[in-house]
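Data card: per-record layout.
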Amino acid sequence: MEKLEKKQEKVLKAIVQNYIETGKPIASNKLVDCCGSKLSSASIRVIMAGLEELEYIWQPYTSAGRIPTDKGYRFYVDQLMEKPELRKKDIKYLSSLKSIHSSDVNDIIKKASEIISGITHYTSLVFIPTEGKVKLRHVEFILLGKRKILVVLVTDIIQVKDKVIVVKRDVDVQNVHQWNEWMHENLMGSGIMDARDILLKENYSDEEGRYVFKELARILSDIKKKEENEPIYSSGDINVFDQPEFHEIENLKSFFSLLDSKERLSKIFNYYLKKNEPQVVIGKENNFIELENFSLVTSSCRVGDKATALLAVIGPKRMSYPKVISLLDITAKILEKTLDKVFEESEVPE
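The structure for this 350-residue chain is written out next.
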């Protein structure tokens, strides 16, 4: 990409920022106020002509002002953008993630997606890949009553499941302690389906033990079925109607078609997750045709021991990049700490 002169950078920055804020092309006479008194309208016209020749800006229709191209946005993001401080009310909203009262990691992930879309007014998504074998990190029976047993189960990705098994006969603390010891010795570190198979093959000495292990095997099967489709949590889908770009029916159809295809989204997000760093992908820079009229901003965060979640915002190319990038970065850090706390609380001391 060419190196621009300071005057060109100043004018390009003003054009991009104005278009992000208003969604309308800007003419040279309107740019005078943005660029300061040192540049006249005539000088700005010359600079704009040069930027247009270099394909940083373009004229959407005759007699209109200019708007940024994908190349113009890219130069702005890489060279001109300033990272803003988030507003106090946004920080307060984001901080609510720290105090969410839930031991279900899925609830926390969903809340993070809602917060991102609420602050940005774009569509936010959180993607958690389940490639490879999901393993049991912790499983424990807790006696709630003589015939009620709470199952606390944690995998090494994100799931924290609470289920209650009702048995036909009275059981005592000693029974539950023996079952927990057996599970600790035989199931920890196993893949979900491997653990299920071990449970189904186990001919435990007492009838109630056989029953609770069979029920646990069923719970593991249910978890596996849910995990076959990699979880994607989205929020703010209807925010697109507030963006003029989506008034074009083809853009709208393309956007909602993509959101409806979880398989396609998984492929896209797996691709960007492998980049191992925040991404800002603008328009036709995307390797996926469904996104060529949009921009995608991503950040990643650790979830549990091994998995990495991808936080993403999809919106128009006329996106408030500084705000979105800052927000995803902060959210990822808060989310990691919040999830670490959940996993720590799920551990039972030896």
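Known properties of this structure: The chain has three domains: 6-80, 88-130+230-346, 136-227. The two ends are 58 Å apart (CA to CA).

See the next section for split statistics.
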